[in-house]
Write a structure and sequence with these properties.
mainly alpha; 3-stranded antiparallel sheet; 257 residues; 5% strand; binds zinc ion
């Protein structure tokens, strides 16, 4: 009878703290946007909508609005500074790796193997994952500006009220926070899934049992895989547990007798 390995658990705490760190940047970006909107843009929308001669001046309301948006853009570079973003991504990868190492060491004890002792793949894997995550976080900022520009200009031109335009900005900031959550959960699952697979195979485990998080958010396709055993050399069409979009499933090692 094969001995029972300590279970693999999804690194919820790592995902949550990664989410909080990205969300902090988004919160600052949101606050900055609303502050500049309230202090500089609102007044210009009123001027524009009054449709008086100010409209035709070179430094008319639309020009001033553009300058205000450019100011938000410039200041947001400080919030999403490349050193800050890299630190967040590096902290995330380090804590995820530490979490994965601990589980793999405990599971490896069944076979008397520490799969984390010699890992020539790890440095390069960490480096490329950090680079990838830096780009995901930076994209949040890049994608934000075309959206808020569209909200403000279309709002002004369609004669929406200041409150309507502001509400849409608030909604967009909320959607950007959801994006942060998506990245945090998705990246935690993907990277943890790949690390787990590497370390299981390193300890001579060639098969895994798919295990969902057993809550209501599990997608039906993954619920159908729960408890099933697959060889690492021939995983199901979905891929490895954790690697599909936003997947929180994990691989339990299956030890041969
Ligand atoms: Zn899943």
């Amino acid at each position: 009878m094969a001995r029972k390995a300590p279970p693999t658990r999804f690194p919820d705490a790592v995902a949550v703290s990664y989410y909080r760190e990205i969300k902090r940047l988004v919160d600052e970006l949101g606050k900055l946007t609303l502050r500049v909107f309230d202090e500089q843009i609102k007044e210009q929308i009123k001027l524009y909508q009054r449709n008086d001669s100010a409209f035709y001046k070179t430094d008319g309301p639309l020009d001033v609005i553009q300058q205000a948006i450019d100011l938000i853009k410039a200041l947001s570079l400080g919030i999403f500074a490349s050193s800050t973003v890299k630190e967040i991504a590096t902290r995330f990868l380090n804590s995820l790796n530490q979490y994965s190492e601990n589980i793999a060491r405990n599971q490896g004890k069944i076979k008397g193997i520490d799969p984390t002792q010699y890992e020539p793949w790890l440095d390069e894997y960490m480096r490329s994952s950090i680079t990838e995550n830096v780009s995901y976080i930076s994209t949040i900022r890049d994608e934000f500006f075309p959206k808020i520009e569209a909200i403000i200009y279309q709002g002004v031109k369609n004669g929406q009220s200041i409150k309507e335009i502001r509400d849409q900005l608030v909604k967009r900031i909320g959607m950007t926070q959801n994006r942060a959550k998506f990245i945090a959960v998705d990246q935690t699952g993907s990277i943890f899934g790949q690390m787990t697979a590497k370390r299981h195979q390193e300890m001579g485990v060639n098969k895994f049992k798919w295990s969902t998080s057993h809550d209501e958010r599990v997608r039906p396709a993954h619920r159908a895989l729960d408890g099933k055993v697959f060889p690492y050399s021939d995983p199901p069409a979905e891929g490895l547990p954790g690697t599909p979009f936003r997947c929180r499933c994990v691989a339990i090692p299956v030890f041969d007798d």
